[in-house]
Amino acid sequence: MLTKRIIPCLDIKDGRTVKGVNFLGIKSVGDPVEMAGAYSGQGADELVFLDISAAVEGRKAFSALVERIALEINIPFTVGGGISTVEDASVLLRAGADKVSVNSAAVRNPSLISDIASRFGSQCVVVAIDAKNTDGVWRVTTHGGSQFSDKELFSWAKQAESLGAGEILFTSMNHDGTCSGYACSEYRKLSEMLDIPVIASGGAGSADDIVQVLSSSGGNADAALAASIFHYGQVLIPDLKKRLAEHGIPVRM
Fold it and tell me: Is 135 annotated in the active site?
């Protein structure tokens, strides 16, 4: 059985790590390079860095920060935010990122997924999906959750896989930053319908929430991504992995 992954997420705005609730109320929580080094030392399996200002303000994800992070850590990391061309992805991968995450631009131009996958391999392509449940339908959003698209979560995830996505990173906007637990039924459905890994994001409030979303009887996700509980020291990664192992969930210790 493949080991489950623990992935701290650092949302980046103006070069600082920030956090909000339901994609709003953004505030600074630290320096991303320092935090990356700390998480690597604690035993995180991977890291995700999302430049949340990029899609909204039209900025390119910045390679200088990626280079600094690559020098600081020895675990895989993904970078996203404002990636709209193969060249955008190339710049970040050359700077040291292991994977790139595409979101808004891929919704507008799905062939971006296949173009990046053809150039660098599916293992480098993470398709991030920010979706909100409105009237029982999980509607896919773009531009940092500020605009609804015409896509629906499950059909878009399946299409992304067919285009060459290596992983799906689904964030529930209804749960993001609330610390009320993950949308486990949705992760279970995604894991059953897809042949690529599913990363759960949005809603972690405790170690038990992560146990639930990773367990075969819960969300059955391949990886759990979280921010607040790690940033504020509510959950320490070594303790979390011990808890997961105690519940029979395979992790890298």
Answer: no
> Mean pLDDT in the chain?
91
Q: What is the pLDDT of residues 189-224, one digit of tens each?
A: 999 999 999 999 999 999 999 999 999 999 999 999
**In the annotation, is 11 catalytic?**
yes
SS3 content of the chain, % helix, strand, coil (to 5): 40, 30, 30
Kindly list the distances between the CA atom of residue 35 and the CA atoms of 17, 28, 163, in Å, as whole numbers in the listed order: 9, 12, 34
- The CB-based long-range contact list for 22-29 (8 Å cut-off, 24+ gap) reads 22/145, 22/173, 22/174, 22/176, 22/177, 22/178, 23/130, 23/144, 23/145, 23/146, 23/173, 23/176, 23/177, 26/52, 29/231, 29/232
Q: Please check whether residue 239 is in contact with residue 213, taking contact to mean a CB–CB distance below 8 angstroms.
A: no
Question: Which pLDDT tens digit goes with each residue over 144-165?
Answer: 788 999 999 999 999 999 999 9
User: What does the block give as tokens for 5?
Assistant: 């992954």
Q: Which of 45, 51, 88, 130 is catalytic?
A: 130
Q: Which two tokens stand for residue 20?
A: 């909000």
Average pLDDT over residues 90-97: 95
Residues shown for the chain: 253
Distance CA 250, CA 226 (A): 18
**Cβ atoms of 188 and 219 closer than 8 Å:** yes
Q: Which SS3 state, helix, strand or coil, does residue 22 take?
A: coil
Among 11, 51, 209, 222, the active-site one is 11
DSSP E strands in the chain: the ranges are 5-13, 16-21, 24-30, 47-51, 77-80, 99-102, 125-134, 137-142, 147-152, 167-172, 198-201, 223-226
Q: Is 29 exposed, middle or buried (0-12, 13-18, 19+ CB in 10 A)?
A: middle
